[in-house]
Amino acid sequence: MSRDAQLKERWEQLVTILSDRFSQGEDLDLDAIIYLIGIQELGKLHREFKKDEKLNLMHIAICRLLEPYGYYEFEFFDEEGWPHYKVKEELPPLKAGEQSVLMKEAIVNYFLERELIK
Question: Origin, by domain of life (predicted)?
Answer without folding.
Answer: Bacteria
